[in-house]
Amino acid sequence: MNKSSILALVFSFAFFASCGGDKTKKEEDTSKPVTEESNDQAADPSTYDPKRGEGKYTTVELGATLDQAMATKGEEVAGVKCTSCHKPTDEKLVGPGWKGVTERRKPEWIMNFITNPDPMINKDPEVQAQLEICLVRMPNQGLSDDEARNILEYMRKNDGVK
């Protein structure tokens, strides 16, 4: 192999590894027993709330003005976990652009989606339509509550909240 082939191979591996999330965590998640009740809910899309999404966030309190410190932290986290697939504009990269997302979606939906994408991809008709355009499922990046909230604040900043 020549140098350019090795470099291309290393770059490809790094790109796919960065988008794949934490494989160990993914394996742990799939090994957890599924209760009959939660399995019924997964099979029944009628229990899905398209305004809130699916996950633990039922209410997300936003300030009337931007929390600049949170937005800065959110931009840092997004730079590591999100921007390889998403642009802050409305332009599609691998996934859709983020421009206007906080105007189109409730904060609870955004928080639930970025922390719990798999069930929402499986149930939300609008996310499924987006998947047909993007052709790549959003991986679960294993965001903490604070990281997710900071990313939401960065998205608000990106949408012009002052």
Describe, in plain words, how this protein is organized in 3D.
- Helices cover 57% and strands 0% of the residues.
- It is mostly helical.
- The model is unreliable at 7-43 (pLDDT under 50).
- It has helices at 3-19, 23-31, 36-43, 68-81, 101-104, 107-115, 117-123, 125-134, 145-158.
- Helix 4 (68-81) crosses helix 9 (145-158), helix 6 crosses helix 9 and helix 7 crosses helix 8 (125-134).
- It is built from nine helices and no strands.
What gap, in angstroms, lies between the N and C termini? 53 Å
Overall spatial form: globular
Quickly count the helices. Answer: 9
Radius of gyration, Cα only, in angstroms?
A: 17 Å
What is the string of SSEs from the N terminus onward?
A: HHHHHHHHH
Task: State the helical fraction.
Answer: 55-70%
- In what range is the share of β-strand residues? under 5%
Write a brief caption for the model.
The chain is 57% helix and 0% strand.
Topology:
Elements: H1 3-19, H2 23-31, H3 36-43, H4 68-81, H5 101-104, H6 107-115, H7 117-123, H8 125-134, H9 145-158
Helix pairs in contact: 4-9, 6-7, 6-9, 7-8
Give keywords.
single chain; 162 residues; mainly alpha; 9 helices; globular
